[in-house]
Write a structure and sequence with these properties.
The chain is mainly alpha-helical. Helix content is 35%, strand content 0%.
């Protein structure tokens, strides 16, 4: 479950499920992240922690050394 950008998740729901709640760390000056960005961040982290087969952990298209080649 993800909360609304403006209000987050209802506090009663959060209180009842604190052991399962996640918070994405942010700088104090940022009001919120776009909801789709939050879903993408959490989805990636879940896949990464589960060692999802085929999940790219380096630059596949440009090559791992693409920054070195640009010099």
């Amino acid at each position: 479950m993800f909360g609304r950008e403006s209000t987050g998740i209802d506090h009663d729901i959060l209180r009842d499920h604190l052991d399962y709640a996640l918070r994405i760390p942010m700088v104090p000056e940022a009001r919120s992240l776009n909801l789709s960005n939050c879903v993408a961040l959490i989805t990636y982290e879940v896949l990464r922690q589960q060692n999802f087969l085929g999940l790219a952990t380096s630059e596949c298209i440009k090559g791992e050394d693409f920054l070195i080649k640009e010099k």
